[in-house]
Amino acid sequence: MKNEAIISIQNVTKRFPVGDGEFTALKNINLEFQRGEFAGLVGPSGSGKTTLLNIIGSLDSPTEGDALVLGKNISELSHKESALLRNKHIGFIFQVYNLLPVYTVYENVEFALLLQNIPKVQRQKMVMEALEWVGLASMADKKPDKLSGGEGQRVAIARAMVKKPEIVIADEPSANLDAENTHAILKTMRELNENLGTTFLFSTHDEKVMGYLDRIVHLRDGAVEEDEIIKSKTTNQ
Amino acid sequence: MIQFLLKGILRDKSRSILPIIVVSIGVALTVVLSAYMKGAFGDLIDQNARFETGHVKIMTKAYAENKAQLPNDLALLEVDKLIESLDKDFPEMEWVNRIRFGGLIDVPDAQGESKGQGPAAGIAINLFDEKSSEAKRMNIESSIVKGGMPQKNGEAIIGNDFAEKLNLKIGDEITYFGTTMNGSMTFQNFIVSGTIRFGAAAMDRGAIVVDISDAQKMLDMENGTGELLGFSKLNIYDDEKVKQLADKFNQKYVDDLDEFAPIMLPLRAQNNLGEMIDYSSYMSSIFVFIFVFAMSIVLWNTGLLGGLRRYQEFGIRLALGEEKGMIYRRLILEAILIGVIGSIVGTLIGLGGAYYLQIVGIDISDYMDNSTMLMPSVLRAKVTPELFFIGFIPGLLAMVFGNMLSGLGIYKRETARLFKELEV
């Protein structure tokens, strides 16, 4: 599964206009992520973590350089193609679970599949499977306001994973969770990473999250400070 | 996906209730006002047609020019022959003679001395022929306050207010004073068989209704009539059809310089009713436009508020890979669903209101005491099949326009800021 570059960041620079000048959020970044990696971008606020995740997630494009995701150059994608890439191949997990409050747990997870026009019977199977992965099959009919924080984030993981994407981008997924729930969702994600071969890319500065990562890319002031490979991480931590 | 959106609409009360209320109110008002205008103007036109203009009216050209003066000296003669020809040319129409006449009504006391007098606004119609629908058409039987219909020649019905003023009782004798069509003076006694109130102030003042044969005899108008009215046998006034019919008839006499040659006037060419018909249609369009415009603004604002509230949802959808255009189209689809729901609710409420106004109506008789215009004293709405869909025009259009405007914000959303926005 590994040793296949799924994300390739080549000399990427990202600048934003600020007033009359510019702010450089990313400076000549070069990185490569292999299929099935469980990696994280770590660094203080303003280090460029979210900007880099935006580019990898095809939500933004670099000012200079190339960002190849699943072989597609993000700079060359139209809005429609970017949306299609996210729709089919990339799952997102946010700091706040961002579940749609009027829909049930089942429907929140199902929504990702509705966008792909998957037939109902197949959808049903996939949603229940995803809810089983995160241990929430019995709560399928509950509304988000009836869930605890950890359960909400597990539904968000199921929503990101239900379409079996190649890449999952998780932006500070533990920011609103206590230690127990943080460990629980990370174990779940780690299992999915190992069982499904999904590449997970985190943005975090949470030590607990870092403890689960195979690789930590340290960013500072928009540049890679250190690319740390940590071996022999397991789900039993 | 539609099912999914519908669930969201039904469950998210703040997303659906306010727009549905706005649409329902607008639609209900459109339906009620359309029904009321249709009914009021329809009644006005119908009443004019039944009492005065017919769907078409034939007079001599000279009579037509002075018809306000009821110039029976310029009346149509040899009417039987004319009706025979009309029946042949226009079998879809029914033709009826009417003579309108003015004069004086004198009420004598037991000694034969005059105890009271008043101006007469007489109308002579065919009361005795069983095949004639004139009495029914003019609602005479149901408008009788006291007594009954004339049963034989020499009997008349007079206005109830006039009868009360002169303390007349059923069976009392009255004398009509007037002029014949040849200009000589005429007197005719009538027995009061009943009193009547038409409900139209212009008709009720000094009304006297007699059989046409009495009037022909009294006014020396053997086989003559002041006016020959044509009514569609289906009793439906079709403005365009009637105009064609009149054009066809008049074509025959266009070069006839005889002032006694007949001329046919369609309803719209009489009593300014054409302007009334156009005004009614114009006002209906204006109402629909105003409701579409006003509701669009309200729904635009509702959409903007909804858009702010759903900012997070749209962000998630963008992140999940839904295209901006698709979100916009689905927003419009939601608007259509809400518009349809609101329009159905509003139409039902509006139909209920229209039906109530059709039964009860609004009594304007207090404002009509001095009116010379022939119009009903109770204005009622009319429930017609078009009311079942007319509300959908403002309901759907306003909702869709409002959401199209407010939804444009989706295109301004920067996906690059989604993570930051969704952190909140």
Count of domain modules of chain B: 2
**Largest chain interface and its two residue counts?**
A-B, 33 and 29 residues
CA(first)-CA(last) distance of chain A: 23 Å
Number of helices of chain A: 7
What is the helix fraction of residues of chain A, given as a range?
A: 25-40%
Strands of chain B, count: 12
Structurally, the number of domains of chain A stands at 1
Tell how many strands the DSSP assignment of chain A holds: 10
Total of helices of chain B: 17
Taken from the alpha-carbon principal axes, the silhouette of chain A is globular
Oligomer: heterodimer
- Runs of chain B in which pLDDT lies below 50 for 5 or more consecutive residues are none
Helix/sheet category of chain B: alpha+beta
Q: Would you mind describing this structure in some detail?
A:
The complex is a heterodimer of chains A (237) and B (424). Chain A is α/β, with parallel strands linked by helices and 237 residues long. Chain A has helices spanning 49-56, 79-89, 105-114, 120-133, 149-161, 179-196, 207-210, and strands at 5-18, 21-34, 38-42, 64-69, 72-73, 90-93, 167-171, 199-204, 215-220, 223-229. Chain A has one domain (37-53, 79-229): Rossmann fold, CATH 3.40.50. A six-stranded mixed beta sheet of chain A has the order 6-7-8-3-9-10, with helices on both faces. A four-stranded antiparallel beta sheet of chain A has the order 2-1-4-5, covered by helices on one side. The two termini of chain A are 23 Å apart. Chain B is an alpha+beta fold and 424 residues long. Helices cover 51% and strands 19% of the residues of chain B. Chain B is built from 17 helices and twelve strands. In chain B, β2 (93-108) and β3 form a beta hairpin. The longest helix of chain B is centred in the N-terminal third of the chain and has 41 residues, at 13-53. The mean pLDDT of chain B is 85. Classes of the chains: A alpha/beta (237), B alpha+beta (424). The interface between A and B is medium-sized, with 33 and 29 residues.
